[in-house]
Amino acid sequence: FNLGGRSDLLELGETALANGVSLCCPGWNWSQTPGIKLAHGTTTLAFRFRHGVIAAADTRSSCGSYVACPASCKVIPVHQHLLGTTSGTSADCATWYRVLQRELRLRELRDGQLPSVASAAKLLSAMMSRYRGLDLCVATALCGWDRSGPELFYVYSDGTRLQGDIFSVGSGSPYAYGVLDHGYRYDMSTQEAYALARCAVAHATYRDAYSGGSVDLFHVRESGWEHVSRSDACVLYMEFSGSAP
């Protein structure tokens, strides 16, 4: 770039900078020190049925055996007809959802209409795939309603993009899938869908040590998304298992 009528190259160094536009930075020996590997866990799920898309998640954010937050929200609204579940590194998920919100708003202003759920999933996949191999960890289920009706996509930070009817992501997903595979029907009623989502997350929190807290339930309809409820996971498990007093 040009500065003061001459061209300078940006340089990195600890000392003895060659020009006035170089950057001072510490040495890179810190990368040789092994870091602490923290296990992350969660249970999120989403499924499509005739009355829209259901998204549900637990509220426990953990770092290894430490519960960082017992009441976090793992379902993030993108716009009035689109939201997504978050699994992976919390900071990565929050950052990329803010980026997605901005890009979709710009496209809405440019085109005069909201982008489709498929377009949003393709955009998020393309943006994150450029950072493949840099320890980015985002696994999300995009739930929305557009001109095609209810839509559901799974997007991972390596660029993976899948369309389907049922997705569960996180350390508790094997337990949630067992409940979903047993009880899922596309033509179920709204109350049956609510009960299925609550039951799946509640049973996953009972078996998975990294999931817990409460169960957040969201419903995406043609009119927009709705936060249906936040219920205690332990109480829900006792109700569904028949152990309630």
From TrEMBL:
| GO MF annotation: an example | threonine-type endopeptidase activity
What InterPro entries does the annotation carry? Answer: Ntn_hydrolases_N (IPR029055), Pept_T1A_subB (IPR000243), Proteasome_bsu_CS (IPR016050), Proteasome_sua/b (IPR001353), Proteasome_suB-type (IPR023333)
Does Nucleotide-binding count among this protein's keywords? no
Keyword field: Cytoplasm, Hydrolase, Nucleus, Protease, Proteasome, Threonine protease, Zymogen
Provide the active-site residues from the annotation: T42
Which locations, inside or outside the cell, does it occupy? Cytoplasm; Nucleus
Q: CDD domains attached here? A: proteasome_beta_type_5
Q: Which GO terms describe its cellular component?
A: cytoplasm; nucleus; proteasome core complex
Q: Which reaction does it catalyse?
A: Cleavage of peptide bonds with very broad specificity
Cited PROSITE patterns: PROTEASOME_BETA_1 (PS00854), PROTEASOME_BETA_2 (PS51476)
Membrane-spanning residues: none
* Stored Gene3D superfamilies: Glutamine Phosphoribosylpyrophosphate, subunit 1, domain 1 (3.60.20.10)
Question: Is Disulfide bond a UniProt keyword of this protein?
Answer: no
The record, for Pfam families, names: Proteasome (PF00227)
The protein's predominant localisation is: cytoplasm
A GO BP term here is: CD8-positive, alpha-beta T cell differentiation
Q: Which family does it belong to?
A: Belongs to the peptidase T1B family.
Function, in words: Component of the proteasome, a multicatalytic proteinase complex which is characterized by its ability to cleave peptides with Arg, Phe, Tyr, Leu, and Glu adjacent to the leaving group at neutral or slightly basic pH. The proteasome has an ATP-dependent proteolytic activity.
Q: How does it assemble?
A: The 26S proteasome consists of a 20S proteasome core and two 19S regulatory subunits. The 20S proteasome core is composed of 28 subunits that are arranged in four stacked rings, resulting in a barrel-shaped structure. The two end rings are each formed by seven alpha subunits, and the two central rings are each formed by seven beta subunits. The catalytic chamber with the active sites is on the inside of the barrel. Incorporated instead of PSMB5 and PSMB8. Component of the proteasome complex.
Q: What is this protein called?
A: Proteasome subunit beta
Phylogenetic lineage: Eukaryota, Metazoa, Chordata, Craniata, Vertebrata
